[in-house]
Structure formats: structure tokens, C-alpha cells
Design a protein that fits this description.
With 174 residues, the chain is of the alpha+beta class. The protein contains four helices and nine strands, in the order ααββββββββααβ. It has one domain: Cupredoxins -  blue copper proteins (Immunoglobulin-like, Sandwich). It has helices spanning 5-21, 24-27, 153-158, 162-168, and strands at residues 31-38, 45-48, 51-54, 59-64, 74-75, 104-108, 113-118, 128-133, 170-171. The chain is globular and about 40 Å long.
Length: 174
């Protein structure tokens, strides 16, 4: 069987694409899972885990596993309901919109820094989370850069400390 020039070039392109996926940049393709949960009676709602450390370029997928509620994952950013910025300035804010039970939403994180997010209908109940991208101590990050603004007291108390996330890698809800 004789191959045409087009077939040879096409095969070479596929090989180059496959090799590029084995580069360190492609290692960040691992998806990190965060679930949205709650008690059947609606008395408590939360993200699980509430704090996580990831590598630049990784994707986070939130899935609503709370059969009795819809939830959102929404970045603290002035572009989202004029909330205070609690994420790196160069990062793109996200808002999943309302997710019904068993629905998911994903976002990729490329900018290093601390990202705080919340559930729009349950922020007042302390349904918040924190993602750290990269290595904050390498950049001198010890506290979240950003204003508390008018965040509910229950939300402010729920955020895990940056140091705890850095030490553990993952922080579950108390």
C-alpha cells in the first residue's frame, strides 16, 4: 500500500498533537471535583471540599449533588452582581448560573492566586469556597488580597485559611 503525501502529512500532524499532549502543560488537564451538597431538609448547604489547592491550568468541575436545591458557583467579582473582588485581577470571573440537581459547571484556572466564590442563593448561609492556584508562599501571599465588602458574617467565617489549604491541599467542611 502506498501512502499519499497528504496521508503522511496528516499522520505527522496527529503524531505532533499527541506528543504535545504529553508535555507538562497537558499534565494540568486533571479535573478537580467539587460537589454542592445540602441536608434534605435544606437546613445546611455547602461546597465539598470548601478549600482546594490546584496547579495553574487545572480545571475545576462543580456538580450539584443536592437533590433538594439548585446552586451556583460564582466568583467574587464586581462583574458578578457588583460583589467585591476576591480573586486575582488578571483572572476571568465565572458564574455558573443556577445548576439543578446532577448538573455540572467547569472553569479552568490559569492565573496564580487565591479565588473566593459563593452560591448566589446561599451566600448568607455560608456556602462559600476557596481555590488557591499555584504556590502562594513563593509569591509572598499570606492573606487574601481583596476587600471584605458587604459579605455576610457567616460567609466570612466559613472561608478556610490560606495556610490550611497550603498545608493540607484540600480542606473539607467542618
Amino acid at each position: 500500500m502506498m501512502l499519499t503525501r497528504r496521508q503522511v502529512l496528516g499522520g505527522g500532524g496527529a503524531l505532533a498533537a499527541a506528543l504535545s499532549r504529553s508535555s507538562p502543560a497537558a499534565w494540568a488537564e486533571e479535573v478537580v471535583e467539587i460537589t454542592m451538597r445540602g441536608r434534605d431538609d435544606g437546613s445546611q448547604v455547602w461546597f465539598d471540599p470548601i478549600g482546594i489547592l490546584i496547579k495553574p491550568g487545572q480545571t475545576v468541575r462543580w456538580t450539584n449533588l443536592n437533590s433538594g436545591n439548585s446552586h451556583t458557583t460564582t466568583a467574587y467579582s464586581p462583574t458578578n452582581f457588583e460583589r467585591p473582588r476576591r480573586m486575582p485581577g488578571a483572572a476571568k470571573p465565572w458564574d455558573s448560573g443556577y445548576l439543578l440537581p446532577n448538573e455540572s459547571f467547569s472553569a479552568a484556572f490559569t492565573e496564580q492566586g487565591v479565588y473566593d466564590y459563593y452560591c448566589v442563593p446561599h451566600e448568607h448561609a455560608g456556602m462559600v469556597g476557596r481555590i488557591i492556584v499555584g504556590a502562594p508562599e513563593a509569591h509572598g501571599w499570606t492573606e487574601l488580597v481583596g476587600a471584605n465588602g458587604d459579605l455576610p458574617e457567616k460567609a466570612l467565617k466559613a472561608f478556610p485559611k490560606v495556610e490550611n489549604i497550603m498545608i493540607r491541599g484540600v480542606v473539607q467542611r467542618d
